[in-house]
Please model this.
Amino acid sequence: MNYIVLDLEWNQSNMGKEDAEPELPFEIIEIGAIKLNDKCVMFGEFSELVKPQVYHEMHHITGNLIHMQMEELERGEPFPEVAARFLEWCGEEEYVFCTWGCLDLVELQRNMKYYKMTPLSEKPFAFLDVQKLFSIAYEDRKTRRALEYAIDYLKIKKDIPFHRAFSDAYYTAKVLSCIIEYDREVLRNVSYDVFNPPKVRADEVKAQFATYAKYISRVFADKKEAFADREVVSSKCYLCCCNLRKKIKWFSPNGRNYYCVAYCEKHGYLKGKIRVRKAEDGKIYIVKTTKLISKEEADRIRERKVHAKELRKRHKQNRDIDE
Model:
């Protein structure tokens, strides 16, 4: 297994969203990558500029961050050619993409789709979010740090400047190597790219981790259809796989995230959380996580449901008065 540690730089409209290309809000202008083998030895490098085809002025924030001028990009080649060389460079051996955060793979695929290139995958695929893995290995699993913070924390030598695609891929590879040497088991905490969410039930994702389980549904026309699906609304103990009765049925305090609490006789209270995500074609899919919680946290969720119900009742009363 090889690790393809990827970083991208991208540009955007200097005139704001109203002047942006709807299908390409961020145009990739540089691809950098490092290839690691299973023993964390760097044995390949990729670094190429991309000649802009959509945005021909450098966004002021982008220019200040990466210290690059449009004239320099003119030496590059169009995205389809650079991306094709990059994917060929990745090689035929089995590999997994590794990025700092979860945005690079999304924008890579959005740019590929814009130029009608063959997609990386027609369904979700696993990758390593090194930013998340750093938090799991060294901090509280929740905090997300900047790359330079991680470099300082691990006392890694800063021998090239930050904020260019190759240099950030290089430093991300250094952090990943430290994590692997510290505890290779951390790599079990894979992330899933869902630029192309599951289209059929057979492609849905069901993954179990040390402290929670994740389910990524196929696409649905709308929330009503999604919440009519038994798999979406079910509650199961991810430790013993038992179907559970809910102590607190699904509710939403904000219309975006939904919560429930179920109880397992063997393992205790479990919190379910549903996030409704929009797919590229306007449909939706569901990301559901389930994790063990204390009775005290279950009680707080119950109080939150009561509060949300009171707010909805008050809102309805005010609306009736206005009418």
Observations:
- The chain has ten helices and twelve strands.
- The chain has a mean pLDDT of 93.
- The radius of gyration is 22 Å.
